[in-house]
């Protein structure tokens, strides 16, 4: 099967760089399955799980806290804020994040809409993390 | 003339100093390797970020409501200088170089009639600059109790700068840090952060064999850019922090190497002195014995 190069980078290191058959990425406006020869796109990502398919099987599940992806016909580059393999997510840590994010959102009630949006995005990412942790 | 006992004491104390500087040199060398590896690991993200920004920036640059972070506030009056230095000394002229560079910039800007605000990162630079420019310092950030610098810290600084920008506290933001040229050479340099200098979007930016693609954006260009720019700011600061850390250890290693060598020279000199004194004492005693025997 045709493949494209998937690169997953966090600010601290290059996490993944190899040819894969398909990747499902949590784009801002819904999950997106990317196959080779996809039209060029730049998308924002929300908190969610990246699923990688190689050799007809899902081989990796990585949770990201948001970021960006650049898609070209031959290559997908994901710039993620924070990357954790789903298997190592901890429910307790995720729950704590949700609580923190809820508090931050409540505290941002009087702030500008942008600040509130950011806080609610973070809460959504934390909830997605919790869900992923529970599913794992 | 110093007695033999005094000399012995001095030799021993210089010897233990040499042991300390030698140990510090080795510690700095080990930490330098780690810092370099970390800086190396951060590079891919920065490169890809640059590529994305180049294509996005070109799409938005002409629009009048492009984000402030990209085009600035349109004025050039208030300058924020972010000065990155190390937390500790014993590293030769490392901190002084960055401090002196910052001082020259402040003087130059003020001579042009601009207002200067200072944000210092690292204790050494803060103490250096506060002596002369205490009234310009708007913030001090120190990570002396952070074991390992991470992206988190850079993000924190970036958030602070963004908040200041949104509050309209400055027009231009410049980062001053020691660029890591090599282990023995760190160059104090500046980099403009806001308005963000965009990497040129020419054919050279695209990898070979790939046409400069026409991207589709989701959500729109401007929303994307508004999210990407603060990230870019953080990554630039992160890079500066890492280069500063690597440079610090490089500089410390060189300084400690010199100190070890100087201590060695000093021990040689003192040992020579010690032996001469010892010899002189023996000769003197001999003369006393001989002249005593002759007198009998």
Task: Detail the poorly predicted runs of chain B.
Answer: 202-210
CATH architectural grouping of chain B: 3-Layer(aba) Sandwich
Measured as a percent range, the helix fraction of chain A is 25-40%
| Strand and helix order of chain A | EEEEEEEEHH
- CATH topology group of chain B: Pyruvate Kinase, Chain: A, domain 1
Structural class of the helices, strands and pairings of chain B?
Answer: alpha/beta
Provide a compact summary of the structure.
The complex is a heterodimer of chains A (136) and B (296). Chain A is an alpha+beta fold. Chain A is built from two helices and eight strands, in the order ββββββββαα.
Task: Give an overview in words.
The complex is a heterodimer of chains A (136) and B (296). With 136 residues, chain A is an alpha+beta fold. Chain A folds into two domains: 4-86, ATP Synthase, domain 1 (Sandwich); 89-135. In chain A, 29% of the residues lie in helices and 46% in strands. Chain A has two helices and eight strands; from the N terminus they run E-E-E-E-E-E-E-E-H-H. Chain A has helices spanning 91-107, 113-135, and strands at 4-9, 14-20, 22-27, 30-34, 41-54, 57-72, 75-80, 83-85. In chain A, strands 1, 2, 3, 4, 5, 6, 7 and 8 form an eight-stranded mixed β-sheet that branches. In chain A, a hairpin with a 4-residue loop joins strand 1 and strand 2 (14-20). In chain A, helix 1 (91-107) packs antiparallel against helix 2. The longest helix of chain A has 23 residues, at 113-135. The radius of gyration of chain A is 16 Å and the shape is globular. The two termini of chain A are 28 Å apart. The mean pLDDT of chain A is 86. In chain B, strand 4 (172-182) and strand 5 (185-194) form a beta hairpin. Chain B has a single domain (22-255), classed as ATP synthase, F1 complex, gamma subunit (Pyruvate Kinase, Chain: A, domain 1). Chain B has helices at 4-60, 68-71, 94-111, 123-133, 151-166, 221-295, and strands spanning 78-84, 115-121, 137-141, 172-182, 185-194, 216-218. Chain B is α/β, with parallel strands linked by helices and 296 residues long. Chain B has a five-stranded mixed β-sheet with strand order 3-2-1-4-5, with helices on both faces. Chain B is elongated. Chain B has six helices and six strands; from the N terminus they run H-H-E-H-E-H-E-H-E-E-E-H. Chains A and B meet through strand 5 and strand 6 of A and helix 1, strand 6 and helix 6 of B. Strand 5 of chain A pairs parallel with strand 6 of chain B.
